[in-house]
Amino acid sequence: MLQQHHDLLSHTLKYPSNLPQQEQFELAGGVEVSLTDVGILRFEPPQPDAADIVLSAGVHGNETGPIELLNRLVQELLAGTLNCRNRLLILLGNPPAMVVGKRELEHNMNRLFSGNHSNYQGDEAQRAKRLELAVTEFFQQRDGQRYHYDLHTAIRDSKREKFAIYPFRHGKPWKRQQLAFLANGGIDTALLIHSPQTTFSYFSSNQFGADAFTVELGKVRPFGHNDSQSVAQIESQLRRLISAEPVLIDAAAPLTVFDVAQEINKQSDAFTLNFADDAANFTEYQRGDLLAQDGEVEYRAKADGEAIVFPNAKVALGQRALLTVLPVGAEQPFE
Length: 335
Ligand SMILES: [Zn+2]
Description:
By secondary structure, this protein is an alpha/beta fold.
């Protein structure tokens, strides 16, 4: 029982596929808590402030640091040491993969949103659909200020340990205040995306106008091996948001914003990356450096300082094998 043990993570790992029973109970102060499905937990204050907040982690099952972060917040909420004053939906994305400590069982779940799950079979496709439904039911209840932070950790080292991916906004301005919120949470790098994706954060941004981000919080480690200090700043920001206290948005917090320079999709089985397998994210290259080859096609850096992000030669054909980025130019619209 979640109500007694306050531990959503243990509960989810124990029942990763089927919830033995739904739970609904009330906290002191009248906050309604509902565990409606595996890893899907809602908090509804009696008189909520304006924000509707979705926090998700574990869409990749082995990305344990953010899962533990959300579990700490849930423990504090259930223990009454953190006040829930905004509506809140907590999602643990891929429980069966969490149990076996794998990023995914069959499919990369963070490519299955915005309906792309219907093109796939299996548990992960069904789960992506279930998560979409949970977010839809949550946001549709009112016209609040909508937020979704989908928390991840990266597979590889990174020259920039923490960074946020800002999904495509279809020409709407990027929000400086959101970037400042993240920067004051220790996430000093952001990456602007310029095309629709099938990620969870794009789904919430595009379908519901949420301020939504994929947030990378460091490197993958097993459960129990994460340093909670390294995420203390963003954890504090999330606590402030949940409890409707002023969040920190000091414009002086360090922040570098990157734009996508090249998005390189794997077109053939001959695709190779021209750097070490363990090259860190945000490693920089000089104009003309060969980055990847796909049969006859060569991909080279187009500018000095062009940096690589998310290289993965093992993706399925047609999927993204490499992004390159450059510091943002003056032409991007911010508000
Ligand atoms: Zn991830």
